[in-house]
Amino acid sequence: MTLLHAHHITKQFGGLTAVNDVSLTIDAGSIVSVIGPNGAGKTTFFNVLTGIYKPTKGTITFDGKEIAGLRPDQITTLGICRTFQNIRLFGTMTVLENVLVGMHARLRASLWPTIFNTPAVRAEERTARDRARELLNFVHLDDKRSQLARNLPYGDQRRLEIARALATSPRLILLDEPTAGMNPQETAEATRLISRLRDDLGLTVVLIEHDMRVVMTISERITVLDYGTKIAEGLPDEIRANPRVIEAYLGKGAAVHGVEQVEG
Amino acid sequence: MTADNRQTGQFASLWAQLRATAGRGPAPYVLTLAYATIVSALLLLNPTTGLGTDMVVVLFLLLMFVIYRAPTMLAFKLTLGTILLGVIMPVFGVLNPFYIDVVTKAGMFASLALGLNVVVGFAGLLDLGYVAFFAVGAYLWGIFSTPQISNIVPGMGPLNGSWFWLFLAIGLAVGALFGVLLGLPVLRLRGDYLAIVTLGLGEVIRVLATNLDRPVNITNGAQGIKDVGRPPLFVEPLFKALGLNISVIQEYQLYFYFLVLLILALTVLVVYRLNNSRIGRAWTAIREDETAAIAMGVPLVRMKLLAFAVGASFAGTMGVIFSALQTFINPPTFDLLRSIGILSMVILGGMGSIPGTMLGAVIVTLLDLQLLPRIASELSILQRRGVPIPSWFDPAQYQRLLFGLLLVIMMIFRPEGLLPEDRRRQELHQDDLPAPAAEQEQPAPAAEAKPEPGS
Question: Who among A89, A128, A134 is closest to B445 (CB)?
Fold first, then answer.
């Protein structure tokens, strides 16, 4: 079943075409990677999917609804959420509060009930905190829930971003370079966590990733962008052997010699 | 250098020891009570006007802060605070009518500063035109309670003082409405740009107040509105029953003192609840990172407008009270300096912090109305007595300089404000937090968690 369908997406900034006529279909319950050299337009593509940019051309259907042109918060409410390449936590809020912000759209408490602190508001707040702690447990951060987000070590910040995204109760989660800057052990842990998002929580996962070991291990399908254009799409083994992909990454010469280098 | 460090270290450990001793067992209760008794006695036994009493009044207001921070039971804090503010201060006010006015103003500015703190401290939207909402509230009651109203609605006379109570609520609503109206054009702006535009909009309101005397005389222009209506003194029989024989002026002083105290208490409650809610978290998220906030499902526009509206509503209500208290309002009262003054209270106290903002408001108001003029007049007296202060030096002219210097020193040595936001303390006292509901009601998720340090 198709969960998200991006149809001929183009995004131009003035004269620069960052994403050029890219189509992508994502099946519910799959893990899909978007890869490509630096500047290929991967993050811009994510920003278009999540509503931070409006596409210049093209349509996006999520779960049967047209979402291109909606505001980011509306798209999040429909069930798409994301993490950021350069971590964007709310630094002076605690770990728990960061997750609670993610629940914003799922909570009801409005101005007057909050001011009068009605039983309904109190009950909702209690449930929200319980749920937030479950999510923190899921990413192994519950014991740090009262720390300020900005004081967490790097790996913890990455996991907190995932917990915060999960708090929006998404069906599709977009991870922008979830293992960037991690050592091999942290990367292995992060990879396990990404698999659990699908296996334990039943989410659909799209990730942008540079670490080819991660990409090849967990993705079911891979889409390759270069200079804003989709140059390949397919199973990991097909992508590994695709000469255009190797050329994009390593230049023309490498494409002749084979594929081993791509993985390094 | 090393000797210095060692000395500082010794002082620090001595200080820590002192704090530990003072915070253990019955010590905080005894010490707070002793402090309260001494200060109250000083106030009540010697109600003269002078530098000495100024200092005692400052100590009295600092006492509120000590009670707030003392490690005692909440019931004790509330009782002591109520007795001090509800009995001691009014009695002192009866004995010496001069100071209660200053304390009322301090309460009024504390409420204003709390409102601005919602916009600047919580949501991070730098607003330099905040006093506009205060002006709107003041002019609202000023126009409706004086013959000005007949210029706008022919045949309608000034409203009777009993309407004042309703106008507290109307002031709230109109303040909120203006908050949204002035918020709309600045939604897309951030930081410096936002500050400049709000500054402009604030000035627009002041200029309107100055010039809306033609073609229809709405605000009476630069002359201002005088004889603004006051609420009826329904508490008069109570004063008589208490055996108080005081003038109407003093009765009104007490009346407004209690009114401001009540509104301030409500403001604190509302702001506190909002800050610790879904709405407050959304505001802080916007302050921290707008893009991340909207990506997490926080509707930016609605939440920013809500911040403007909530902040402005407090100013609207306080404006209504202000005009009734002063019985005279004119445009210069609501100039840019006033906005900046309120902002400096927020920054001095600690942006985003509720007790900090109130402390900042009290300190700035006292400095402004009481201490700096007093220092200046004491210096003039010395000057006249022949103390070698050059005659070209007019201390009264240097009040603002001293205030400015204080601000500069504060920002260099304690940029986060006197009492920074709670979250920083929360982080240091994770184990002191009330146990989350999860552990009390359903132990299942907590059991999966890693064990808490120290539990």
Answer: A134
